[in-house]
Specification:
single chain; binds 5'-O-[(S)-ethoxy(hydroxy)phosphoryl]adenosine
């Protein structure tokens, strides 16, 4: 989208002069607003505009008492925000609470027999299971007793999970929370090696896994990955002493992998001893860590984002109430995997803290056909629906007319995880939502605990492709590379930052506090000696532009992270996995535009001297990535090239190859040490893509800018 006749005044006035890379001029057509339906407004949790004032900067940080008051505290806090050791902020200091108590016990009196979770198995002929708050209470207590007495874990220990989408996952999380044990769930689709690396990083002695689960009609053998994980952890110096294996069908083992004597145990068998055991919830300081969630960053080693108990739980409860509009009587379905932060915050902790019914689904959206989600919504009476653009695109592609066939009605819908194209947004609103729902586009990150940017669903109109303003109590700003504020309506993009701390922000990177400061705070810190939070803006690592109305449009990562189907994959991780193949000398990962997954990965590799390209080597690279990271990271293409374009100091210029893969401008190559290689690579890659009919559509201006900026963090 260039500057058109219909462009907004601000975009037309944007400077045409060449600007620095961080100040890329961005121009697009302003989208029209959509107003929330009157029926939604009439019942919304946040319907009084005064809420904006209550969370205004003049009331910070005390405004967050409103969120903390949604919880039951064993002891209330004396300091709302302690800034004595920046940027290691402490929230609700002096307060004590237990997360499991808040998500379960306190609802028993009023809602004992109400479904806390409704679990939908992937096979359509298998029965849906309801887990009432009473069932959840019993199961969490029993597993907590097992973890404590058989597992020998104590408050503050870490336990790694590698669990798929079954109720045993929230049960395991809440059992740890009950004991004050820190859980670290690794997404079930990740490889055994990725799980082992994370178990080692968090020094876990216990791994909780499952024998098997259904995905796309197939019973996947999952326990096999536990053996790889234990092996990998051992290589990294961490002994996993016990592997606790839940069985998808208790009593029946669905894996081919042998149980290792003295190390592997079936949870359903062990539980016999713990029937009806009750474990007192351990009263934890607000600042005690609740869980770790690993994510990708600019270097190979994954970052264990450490989230707190009090601040985190208050933040997800508050945002679930006002932004997800959850009432206790709703049937809420967040169609994400609990293995990602979205599932932790908005399938488990937020909804259960509010005492609602949270739906979870085991399998893929389009199994056995693209009508599946809408059948589930109809049958269960789901009225709040939450998913990611990649799922929306896939459902639109495979079943554009399907939603109309089913009688469900959503009052509220969410999109999260990556930028959504206005066109896809409109299909979501009109066809999935039948024009009846308020839609929120929520921008945030693993590091943040909960939403950062979104409209308040009853109070602020929606604008396709924009997440909206900062959420309650979040004051964002866009800075250029030199720390100057990029003004709203200037039509210029920059780095989006949050000026203030908030209760959901992660506390540190597990075991790497220096990296925490360096990655998120160093860039825009005004004074390292200062104990004033105003001197410590949080650098989110996303490019963004702010329209004159204050709404933000997120443009994607500014670091070397590729967002595939809403999942952050670090280029360094992909590259180090490729280099484990002995034939490979160098590797570079770049994003290509993909109609369904948003972005896909293409790998460029060069071979050691004397070797020649072969399909076999390509397959080895694909396999290595699958083993080290997981299927989700499998590259769309692998190109074996004679050499990589490099700077004179020897750095691979990813933006050049990204330009080639996307048939876009490669930018200035005159400063390369080997400019002649660019044409060779272009010829190799593009002629094959043309021959295979794999030429992407022309990129929008915004996409061209993303590609041109790729890899600039180097
Ligand atoms: C991107 C997922 C545009 C962004 C909750 C961010 C988004 C990264 C949106 C975090 C959105 C997330 N619009 N981009 N609504 N939501 N992103 O850690 O680049 O898996 O930095 O957290 O996803 O991904 P993560």
């Amino acid at each position: 989208m260039g500057i058109g006749e219909d462009g907004p005044a601000s975009a037309r006035e944007a400077p045409e002069a060449v600007v620095s890379e961080a100040q890329i001029a961005v121009h697009w057509r302003e989208e029209d607003y959509y107003q929330p339906p009157a029926s939604f407004i009439a019942q919304a949790n946040a319907a009084d505009p005064a809420i904006r004032q209550r969370f205004g900067e003049e009331h910070f940080p005390d405004c967050f008492k409103e969120y903390a008051d949604l919880l039951t505290w064993d002891q209330s806090w004396d300091t709302t925000l302690d800034t004595s050791d920046p940027p290691f902020w402490k929230w609700f200091v002096g307060g004590r609470l237990n997360a499991s108590f808040n998500c379960i016990d306190r609802h028993l009196e009023s809602s004992r027999n109400k479904a806390a979770l409704i679990w939908v198995p992937e096979p359509e002929d298998e029965e849906t299971k309801e887990v009432t708050y009473q069932d959840l209470y019993r199961r969490v207590n029993e597993f907590a007793a097992l973890l404590r007495d058989f597992g020998g874990v104590k408050t503050g220990d870490r336990v790694t999970f590698h669990l798929p989408m079954l109720p045993e996952l929230p049960v395991s999380m809440l059992a740890c929370a009950r004991l004050g044990v820190i859980h670290s769930e690794v997404f079930g689709g990740f490889s055994g090696a990725a799980c082992g690396e994370r178990a080692a990083d968090s020094q876990s002695r216990i791994l909780v896994t499952m024998d098997a689960y259904y995905r796309n009609g197939e019973l996947i053998d999952h326990k096999a990955k536990a053996d790889e994980a234990v092996e990998k952890a051992r290589e990294e110096g961490q002994e996993v002493e016990k592997v606790l294996v839940w069985r998808r069908h208790p009593g029946e083992y669905g894996s081919q992998s042998p149980m290792v004597d003295g190390r592997d145990f079936f949870v359903d068998e062990l539980l016999e001893v713990y029937r009806d055991k009750v474990v007192e919830p351990v009263s934890m300081p607000a600042e005690a860590p609740l869980f770790l969630m690993y994510t990708s960053g600019t270097t190979g080693r994954p970052k264990g984002c450490q989230h707190s108990t009090g601040g985190y739980l208050a933040y997800v409860a508050g945002t679930s109430k006002y932004y997800q509009d959850i009432h206790p009587e709703d049937t809420y379905w967040c169609f994400a995997d609990i293995g990602w932060i979205t599932g932790h915050s908005y399938i488990v902790y937020g909804p259960l803290a509010l005492g609602t019914t949270s739906v979870m689904y085991e399998g893929v959206p389009t199994y056995p056909d693209a009508g599946r989600p809408w059948r589930i919504a109809e049958r269960l009476g789901v009225n709040i629906f939450h998913t990611a653009p990649t799922t929306i695109r896939m459902l639109r592609k495979l079943g554009p007319e399907e939603p109309k066939k089913y009688d469900y009605h959503f009052k509220h819908m969410t999109t999260v995880g990556e930028p959504i194209e206005p066109d896809v947004w409109r299909w979501y609103y009109e066809v999935v939502g039948k024009g009846e729902a308020a839609v929120v586009d929520t921008w945030w990150q693993t590091e943040n605990g909960g939403f950062l940017g979104s409209t308040l669903p009853a109070l602020e109109p929606m604008k396709p492709g924009s997440c909206g303003p900062g959420v309650l109590g979040i004051y964002p700003v866009i800075y250029d590379e030199d720390g100057n504020v990029v003004k709203a309506g200037s039509g210029r993009a920059g780095n989006i930052c949050i000026r203030n701390p908030w209760p959901g922000i992660f506390q540190t990177i597990w075991g790497q506090p220096e990296r925490f400061v360096e990655i998120y705070y160093e860039k825009y810190c005004r004074n390292k000696e200062s104990k004033d939070w105003r001197d410590w803006p949080y650098f989110a690592g996303d490019g963004a532009v702010q329209a004159a109305d204050g709404y933000f449009r997120i443009l994607g990562r500014v670091d070397d992270v590729i967002n595939v189907a809403g999942h952050r994959l670090g280029t360094k991780e992909l590259e180090s996995a490729s280099i484990t193949v002995e034939e490979i000398a160098e590797a570079a990962a770049v994003p290509v535009m993909d109609e369904v997954r948003g972005r896909a990965v293409e790998m460029y590799v060069s071979l050691k001297p004397g070797l020649s390209p072969s399909k076999e080597i390509e397959q080895k690279v694909a396999k290595a990535i699958e083993t080290e990271i997981g299927k989700i990271a499998r590259p769309k293409r692998i190109w074996i090239v004679p050499d990589m374009p490099k700077t004179r100091s020897g750095k691979i210029m990813r933006r050049v190859i990204a330009g080639i893969s996307n048939f876009a401008d490669v930018g200035d190559v005159t400063t390369l040490a080997n400019p002649e290689i660019v044409d060779d690579i272009r010829h190799l890659v593009q002629s094959e893509k043309v021959a295979q009919g794999d030429v992407p559509r022309e990129l929008t201006k915004q996409e061209q800018e993303e590609i041109a900026a790729f890899g600039r963090a180097e």
